[in-house]
Write a structure and sequence with these properties.
Elements (H helix, E strand, L loop, with lengths): L9 H4 L3 H16 L8 H15 L7 H8 L3 H9 L5 H15 L6 E10 L9 E5 L4 E15 L2 E9 L3 H5 L2 H6 L11 H14 L6 E4 L1 H4 L2 H9 L4 E5 L4 E2 L6 E2 L18 E2 L7 E2 L3 H4 L1 H5 L3 E8 L2 E12 L12 E8 L6 E5 L7 H8 L3 H12 L11 H25 L34
Parallel strand pairs: 1-5, 5-6
Antiparallel strand pairs: 1-3, 2-3, 3-4, 6-14, 7-10, 8-9, 11-12, 12-13, 13-14
Helix pairs in contact: 3-4, 3-16, 4-5, 6-16
């Protein structure tokens, strides 16, 4: 971390004296890359104050203590978030462009997830009583959706948007105006927010070999179809209630008139044959699929935890899901995973050929810990959950500025504390059949996924 005087403390990361001296000019040079987004020169100074405050060792990293530590008026920093003219979208774009240019990797993984910020009262934009992950229960909070990026040993936050609840905010436009929410900002399901974030990142040059996300996103067929249309590989956790076929159902193509021409003005669509096997839930495949029952379980050690290595058994089979017309898609890969100790079954869906090794799919599926680590860093070290502003624009700008601060922190750690990832060190795995084997770098097989 950086002390309030802008100097890296050795206790936090254990840097040597030379590294400590190098930090301040490195941060100054980093912040200059955003000068074109800030408008007035004074805003550039406010940007530095905000980022240095988030990187500091302050106990509370809200506007007032950060401004006090820098010898500035808290009102000035509040106005920087809420009133002063600068382009927060351009700042976010600059973060993503920097990642695309300096941290491109042939086997990068993008991770969608959401986090929450407990807040009292009803005036803060987007707040309502809803499930608060940080508290583990229903709580008054603001929820935000994020896109993370992982490439080898490097990971960072690319984007963040506040979720606007439908009934308590979208339907009450007067309440929205009082919280500074523009009329054009409307309710969007979280998966639509995630899709917009993906398209922004792609437009800024970021490329993902894979995406992964939890069962909320994986259980939304529209979201999966949109990713498929973008040509994006993914490994999605899906809920036990997810529907599909373990065998491709037959499709009935209606015959036209005897002369071979369809009746004028009518278009006959294909449909499923009546005698097809009914679409079923994935929770039943272990019981009712002879093919899956005959497939042996394979053991993998997928990650280290505070309680020791997590060893899982996994198997897979082809799986067909419904397209927008209710007809079967092409074959996906259904992966069934259960930890060896308690056999709590999870299901994942991958839109890649069967030739992609199972251990690679598990490696991607269990990459979601990267976004969890990012949230730990941004909350525990950068104070992302310390904001005390209420207006919508201030919250949006705070989330984007946290991306700026986290990218610097990630780059500094990557350069000084971790081993740089290179194309020859691919995050891939080799097939292992015993519990002591890890899903870990071995050989370049991710390229098979395209």
């Amino acid at each position: 971390m950086i002390g309030s005087n802008g100097v890296q403390t050795q206790e936090a990361i254990g840097m040597d004296a030379q590294t400590v001296l190098e930090l301040k000019p490195a941060l100054t040079g980093y912040l200059k890359t955003f000068n074109g987004c800030m408008g007035r020169g004074t805003n550039q100074g406010h940007l530095g104050t905000y980022v240095r405050g988030q990187l500091s060792d302050l106990e509370r990293k809200s506007v007032e203590p950060m401004a006090d530590a820098a010898g500035e008026s808290p009102r000035t920093l509040q106005e920087f978030l809420s009133l002063l003219r600068w382009d927060q979208e351009a700042v976010r774009d600059r973060v993503q462009q920097r990642v695309a240019q300096q941290h491109a990797h042939p086997h990068s993984v993008g991770v969608f997830d959401e986090t929450s910020f407990a807040k009292k009262g009803e005036k803060t934009a987007c707040v309502q009583k809803q499930y608060c992950g940080s508290r583990g229960k229903l709580e008054n909070c603001v929820v935000s959706v994020h896109l993370g990026y992982a490439a080898g040993d490097f990971h960072t936050l690319l984007d963040g948007d506040a979720f606007l609840p439908q009934e308590t905010w979208h339907a009450d436009r007067q309440r929205c105006r009082e919280a500074g929410i523009p009329d054009e900002v409307v309710y969007r399901p979280k998966w639509q927010i995630a899709l917009e974030q993906l398209r922004r990142a792609l437009a800024n040059g970021v490329r993902f070999s894979w995406l992964t996300f939890d069962e909320y996103y994986g259980g939304t067929p529209e979201f999966l179809r949109e990713l498929e249309a973008l040509g994006q590989n993914f490994v999605a956790e899906i809920p036990k209630s997810f529907y599909g076929w373990t065998q491709p159902p037959e499709i009935l193509h209606r015959h036209h008139a005897r002369d071979g021409r369809p009746p004028q003005g009518r278009h006959r669509k294909p449909k499923l044959k009546v005698k097809n096997a009914k679409v079923g839930q994935v929770c039943n495949v272990l019981k009712h699929s002879p093919r899956l029952r005959k497939t042996p379980w394979e053991k993998f050690r997928v990650k280290e935890t505070t309680q020791g290595p997590l060893v899982v058994e996994a198997k897979r089979m082809p799986f067909w899901i419904k397209d927008a017309d209710g007809l079967p898609s092409r074959a996906y890969q259904l992966i069934v995973v259960r930890p060896v100790l308690h056999h709590q079954v999870k299901f994942f869906l991958a839109n890649v050929p069967e030739s992609v090794p199972l251990e690679v799919l598990l490696l991607v599926a269990y990459s979601r810990w990267r976004i969890e680590r990012i949230f730990e860093d941004t909350k525990g070290e950068l104070g992302m959950d310390h904001f005390e502003v209420r207006k919508y624009l201030s919250i949006r700008r705070h989330l984007i500025l946290t991306c700026v601060s986290h990218l610097f922190l990630a780059e500094f750690r990557w350069a000084h504390g971790g081993e740089k990832s290179r194309p020859h060190r691919l995050p891939v795995a080799q097939r292992h059949t015993h519990a002591r084997a890890s899903v870990a770098p071995r050989r370049p097989v991710l390229a098979q996924a395209g």
